[in-house]
Amino acid sequence: MSRVLSGAGGGKVSEAVRRRVEEVARRLGYRPNLIARSLRKGKTNTVALLLPDIANPWFGAIASLVEQSLHRHGYTLMLANSGEDPDREAEYLALLPQKGIDGLIVAPLLRSRKALDQLLPEELPLVVFDRPVPGVKACVSTDPAQQTGILADTLERVGVKKVAMVSGPAHIVTHRVRDELIARRFNVIARHEGPAQQETGRQAFIRFLSLRPDAIVCTNNFLGEGVIDAIEKIEDPPIIACYDQIAMMHLLPLPIVCSVQDVPLMSEKCVELLLAQLEGRPGPAEPIELQARCVTNQRFQSLSPA
Amino acid sequence: MSRVLSGAGGGKVSEAVRRRVEEVARRLGYRPNLIARSLRKGKTNTVALLLPDIANPWFGAIASLVEQSLHRHGYTLMLANSGEDPDREAEYLALLPQKGIDGLIVAPLLRSRKALDQLLPEELPLVVFDRPVPGVKACVSTDPAQQTGILADTLERVGVKKVAMVSGPAHIVTHRVRDELIARRFNVIARHEGPAQQETGRQAFIRFLSLRPDAIVCTNNFLGEGVIDAIEKIEDPPIIACYDQIAMMHLLPLPIVCSVQDVPLMSEKCVELLLAQLEGRPGPAEPIELQARCVTNQRFQSLSPA
DNA sequence: TTGTATGCGTTATCAG
DNA sequence: CTGATAACGCATACAA
Q1: How far does the CA of A73 sit from the C1' of C14, in Å?
Q2: For position A110, what pLDDT does the model report?
Q3: Distance separating alpha carbons of residues A284 and A286, to the nearest angstrom
Q4: Cβ < 7 Å from strand C, B residues 29-68
Q5: SS3 string of B133-180?
Q6: CATH number of B144-261+294-301
Q7: pLDDT tens, position by position, B113-146
Q8: From the CB of residue A224, how many other CB atoms can be counted at a distance below 10 Å?
Q9: B44-142+263-290: in CATH 3.40.50.2300
């Protein structure tokens, strides 16, 4: 019975019986109970992806690509969203393994390996991305120095000296590091910090109105969109610099420069690293750091070099 | 033992034993196996949300809101993504219930109630949204006539006669209906159909270059962004009309009008309808239809009325 | 090759 | 109030 339906008879089942069983199964509309199977086999063929904000299109793109890739490998994706809330994240970190997952991919809010180990079962295959955690080897992120370096170089080339910063929460590594690295290269005349969402960008721009910075630097695309959305008059607009892509930037009537990460590659590496652990293969000895590339729009390109 | 840990002793457990059990549980790092619990209780406290495209920010926003709402009600969200692929959708429709979910919220590709019933267990609490399926009562969508009506009215008011259409796949109700309703109000001089993604919008605009329509109407925001992204020169730009919000539309140097749906309300209603079924309450007798509202940018507002 | 019995970790039930 | 035991649906080891 089980032998034929689960396919795993080891070839040790006669054609006659197989047909009879299959026929009856179909007639009765039999559906294997995968949760019973999981209990028995200790495997769920499900992988969880825990994101800080699924409303952010950047994470949406990651989710889409990871799902496709896992699906090709026979795994179902279980997507969870913490909304950048440490409590919800902790809850999911503890809950997801209990619900039965074979592995976890996460862009964590948590800062330490210890915190992760406390919540997660010791042996759970784990991949961290976007936000490296010290001590976690299975990790994919973008080289922060290179990422910010090309952005700062591009800004310097057109004579930017004074910048205003719009930053996501400092307790999130990516935002904090970007903020710090920019501060080393430019004179930061103003700074606005808040949730990494459009609304924060809007508020920041209003605060910066009278300051006339050479450029406004945002630690992610969502903040950048908020800033741009708040701009009303466009005479002598500031330069907008941000991380990751801004939609329709070519047509926007202000100079924009973005340091964009390689989303498809990052997604692919995440899945690769997780599958390696799931199949018992050895992962890489060190975290993977990808390269970013700089993109500018026409308005930016027509700026006169300093 | 179980009595204390599962909390469900019915108050029939002494303080002394409770403490002793809790102490030992903590010492051993005990974690309840929720998949065993699900098997026994026949309940998972998990709800699946099956989306056609999680990379589309509109669905991302829905996902985020639905997750928050379900979380407040003690359910975990399991998000799945079909990528607008009928086969993947069918697979998930069959798979998710087997994996153990208490209910399902879906924006389906499928067109018929029969097709759904074939894949889904009969008794599974189900909510359909965005894309109504005939015969499914638990359904939340936006009134198509009203939605398109306000868009067409706004366009007519500025003298639009000839439009070019950029449409998502015709087998998806929302795209087909929007396309048809627009065609009844305007002279459609060109039409480009393809996957509801930015790339399709870009290709469409290139095809429309020489036609000089009064407006380009897109059946969703993603297509609209693609069209705008493809526009290079902005002398005498066409009007862009689309469904749902386009980011930073106020600053874009061309007239834009959007008929936007109420995403928060739609998410809330989805959860409401599902919870009603989960708790055995009677749902509404008829599908719910929400109202859309029209938004224009400054460039559109400065157009002279016809 | 096929039938049968046991256990996966819980919870519910039934004695004690 | 508490301890033991069966059953959830499946896969596997073992017996036939």
Answers
A1: 47
A2: 86
A3: 5
A4: 30-33, 36-37, 39-41
A5: CCCCCCEEEECHHHHHHHHHHHHHHCCCCEEEEEECCCCCHHHHHHHH
A6: 3.40.50.2300
A7: 999 999 999 999 999 999 999 999 999 999 999 9
A8: 27
A9: yes
